[in-house]
Amino acid sequence: MSGEWALILGASSGFGAACGRALARAGYNIFGVHMDLKSSMPKVQEVIEDIRSTGQEAVFFNMNAADETRRGAALETMQARLAQTTPPGHVHLLLHSLAFGTLRPFIAPAGEAISKPQMDMTLDVMANSLVYWVQDLVARGMLVRDSRVFAMTSAGSHRVIPNYGAVSAAKAALESHVRQLACELAPQGIRVNAIQAGLTDTPAMRKIPGHEKVVEYALQMNPSGRMTRVEDVAGAIVALAGPGTSWITGSVIRVDGGEDVI
User: Fold this and answer.
1) What is d(CA 256, CA 262) in angstroms, rounded to the nearest whole number?
2) pLDDT band with cut points at 50, 70 and 90 for residue 44
3) Rounded Cα distance, 134 and 118, in Å
4) E strand or H helix at 95
5) What is the rounded distance in angstroms from the CA atom of residue 55 to the CA atom of residue 10?
6) Using CA atoms, how far apart are residues 15 and 255, in angstroms rounded to an integer?
7) Cis bond leading into 87, ω under 30°?
8) What are phi and psi of 49, to 5 degrees?
């Protein structure tokens, strides 16, 4: 895949970082979008250095991926970089792996229940932003025939987890967006799928209140005998981005060792 580019939303940790490293090893240059404070930038730099150590390019943007103005500016920069090659490059793969939402119950004493702004923000960042990024990429000609779009979902899209209600709603909406985009983009040969990872030890997972009990349950119930690892998901995405998978679109693909069938 030398010369191809992948764009990862949520590139600094968890699934996004693992996929950036794996895709770079597979020959992709990486555009990365992340939102980190100064204190966590050393970890981001590690990801960038790991990508560059493979001989691939890493162009990262520290920004709110749901900010329309910042999205436009970042895409301008990406488009300018793609134009430097002959013929002009494109984004072969887009990964939506944004994990920024509110973890609060719906019904609770005043001040403890989720608010409308918190609900709206969670759905905007973790679901609706996929649509807006894809719209802009298609309009700019940056996604082309045989480009692949992947969005990270979870079993929370169809299961109840304490305090996870807003994120559950976002994941369900995200899967709906995947189906709609897959149908609308099929005539252009652009494939859109959701990846449902099993429970994985990521910074986002550790923020779930009571996550220790969820981990214990997953370890007991997963028929493969362990939790999912970020490397499992990264390897699956690299494989699904390759030749021979262009007829897969509009699907929710489980990468969980069989966790969700129990």
Assistant:
1) 11
2) very high
3) 24
4) strand 91-96
5) 22
6) 12
7) yes
8) -65, -40
Query: Which of helix, strand or coil describes residue 78?
Result: helix
| Cα 141 to Cα 86: distance, rounded to the nearest angstrom | 15
What does the angle CA 204 – CA 161 – CA 8 come to, to the nearest 5 degrees?
30
Q: pLDDT tens, 84-123?
A: 988 889 999 999 999 999 999 999 998 899 999 999 999 9
- pLDDT score, position 1: 47
Give the pair of three-digit tokens for residue 112.
Answer: 């403890």
The 3-state DSSP class for residue 94 equals strand
The CA-based angle 43-118-115, given to 5 degrees, is: 150
Query: Do you know the residue count of the chain?
Result: 262
Which residue type does 158 have? H
Among all chains, which residue has been given the structure tokens 């859109």? 192
Segment holding 36, helix H or strand E:
none
DSSP string, 110-152: TTTSPPHHHHHHHHIIIIIHHHHHHHHHHHTT-S-TT-EEEEE
Query: What is the distance between the alpha carbons of residues 37 and 130, in angstroms, rounded to a whole number?
Result: 23
CATH code for residues 5-261: 3.40.50.720
Q: How far is CA 221 from CA 161, 166, 168, 226, 227, in A?
A: 16, 25, 21, 9, 10
Does 2 have pLDDT greater than 70? Answer: no
Using alpha carbons, list the distances in angstroms from residue 58 to 97, 161, 187, 250, 261. Answer: 17, 36, 31, 29, 37
